[in-house]
Amino acid sequence: YGITNMMLTKSLQELEANGLIVRKQYDGIPPKVEYSLSVRGRSLVPLLREFDAWGRTQIEIDRTKESKGFTGL
Known about the structure:
The radius of gyration is 19 Å and the shape is elongated. The protein is of the alpha+beta class. The protein has helices at 5-17, 39-42, 45-67, and strands at 21-26, 32-37.
C-alpha cells in the first residue's frame, strides 16, 4: 500500500495546519524539508501507544478464539 505525492502533501499540510507537526525548509540545491512532531503532536504519543496496545490485545483475543474454534464476535 502506498500513498500518492498529492495525498502525502495534503496530509502533511493538514497536520501542520492543526499544529501537530512542524515544517522546516532548508534553502539549497536540492531543496530540503524536514517535518517533526510539535509539542501538541507529541502529546498524542501516549494515547497512540494505548491504541496500539489495545489493538494488539484484540488481535490476540481473536487468534485465541480462532484456535479454539469460536466463530463470530
